[in-house]
Write a structure and sequence with these properties.
Low-confidence stretches: none
Largest sheet: none
Order of helices and strands: HHHH
Number of strands: 0
Helix content: 55-70%
Strand content: under 5%
Number of helices: 4
Distance between the termini: 42 Å
Mean pLDDT: 83
Length: about 90
């Protein structure tokens, strides 16, 4: 219920907080940033729910539990590397 929505909003707005890091006056860029934050948060929570984050432990994250920020960092690096293969 509402707790799940509150947790998602906390992760997206509080922990990830892309809107604070990428300050803009463009409404279009703000919407894009919000959608990106929703997608990254959804992907993190989905991977966490299905226990898919285990392989990330100990590989650049010092064996600690994967956080949303560390997940977003790994995800962005993988996407940048993937885009360079084309």
């Amino acid at each position: 219920g509402a707790n799940v929505i509150d947790r998602h909003n906390h992760y997206r707005q509080g922990v990830l907080s892309l809107e604070e890091h990428w300050v803009t006056t463009s409404g279009h860029f703000r919407i894009l940033t919000t959608i990106l934050g929703i997608n990254v948060t959804d992907t993190f929570l989905l991977a966490k729910h299905h226990n898919l984050l285990g392989p990330l432990k100990g590989k650049g994250i010092d064996g600690r539990d994967v956080t949303l920020r560390s997940f977003a960092s790994v995800l962005s690096n993988q996407l940048l590397l993937l885009s360079q293969l084309d």
